[in-house]
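User: I'm new to structure prediction. If I give you an amino acid sequence, what do you actually give back? Let's try with this one:
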Amino acid sequence: MNPDINKYEAVIGLEIHVQLNTATKLFCDCPNQPGDAPNRNTCPVCLWLPGALPRLSAEAVEKAVLGCLAANCTIAEESAFDQKVYYYPDLPKGFQLSQHHKPLAVNGWIDIIGESGETRRLGIHHIHMEEDVAKLVHETEGRTPISLVDFNRAGAPLIEIVTEPDMKSPYEAMEFLKALRTRLRYTGCTECSMEQGTMRADANISLRPAGSDTLNTKVEVKNMNSIHHVGDAIAYEIRRQAECLERGEPVTLHTRLWDPDKRVTTPMREKFAGPCVPDPSVPAIRMDPAWLEKIRQRLPEMPSQKTDRFMADYGLPASEAFAMSQERDLAEFFEAAVKQNVIPRKAASWISGHLTPALKERGQTLADTCLTPERFADLLLLLDQEKINAVAAREVLIQILEKKDSPEKIVSLGGFEQVSDVEKLETIVDAILTEHPDDVADYQKGNSKVLGFFMGLAMKASQGKANPKRLKEILSKRLNSN
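Assistant: Good question. You get back a string of structure tokens that encode the predicted 3D arrangement of the chain. For your 482 residues, that looks like this:
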């Protein structure tokens, strides 16, 4: 069935759980390290044993407030925890400590660039704190499937960002997640990795007739562990609901799972909401204005502000300034390199074109490498001085990530010096032209593309060390003189 999707308008909202990178859990002193060996980091509080009393982490509140400020939220003067009651094996005490009635912050927003290039401001209804639940591990032992519970994650501090239903397409949902992730990472309060589970997103999707302002029955989709999966799941669900409406079938309120292999959503359970009652054991959080102002002063320059400043201060075009601003460590690295008298556009080009892909391929951050802004600047200086060419510079960059030797030493030991000697280059060129007389004739008949063919052969003959500029000059001179 091919439904006419243009007849409908999608209404999309997100519920995003973000794990704060505190040293301890939210209500106890157990290490906040969910990836450790199962049930290693537990105590009576996070095991929810009778009589154990929770004690709220000050660090978690600080980092939660930083996250809320990064999302342009208003911090509530008073917030409080509730018992969100439901029964599931990963929550054996029967309730989760969350902030249902009095959330930590409200009325936030994130700006994105829409599909038509316009700025779209997408609203955040509220952000609240809550404890994470335990993790169920499903295994098959023999023929009998079993479920095990790992309490390492139980009690980990979370903030949940609940958006307004402002998004109209999978694209907008994905861009919102990217922008939110960038801003939260800038504060240092979280790693925000969907792949590692420190950021988890659920999507609520409904359809309504195009031009209508009503809100229809929504469907929640879970189990999306990448931003692309969020976009794919929303796109599928829009089509599935459109098919239901075209057949005259009602869309029912329920929760579905995204299957990334089959690229479909499948029914999980009916949607239900248990009661939420105020918790008597955790005191309310009352904001002191002076304390809140100190936290606000810790808020770093945000990515959009950096983008504008990089364009103004360094003359970067919008696309390059945006690329240099997306990760705080790379932005700071870029500025530190520029202070070493590197041309800003050259630094930005090498960071986005070579350094970032190398880090991604190796699964590293800058902190995992031996690279410093000073050594990066030294490498680009060698390139400017024509002591190495771009091919060699890329190889030296990879070695600088692993070694603490200076770029000069790596170039010398590796034999990466550029060949600029005219006589040596002329010898290489003459040999190649002699071996390919037909291609020389082809060039002289007007096929200028042959020059690129000869450049490739000459670079290969020089083992990639030839000075491309001088090599091209010699080739052009020889070919034209013939």
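You can read the tokens as a compact description of the fold. Here is one thing that stands out. The chain has 15 helices and 15 strands.
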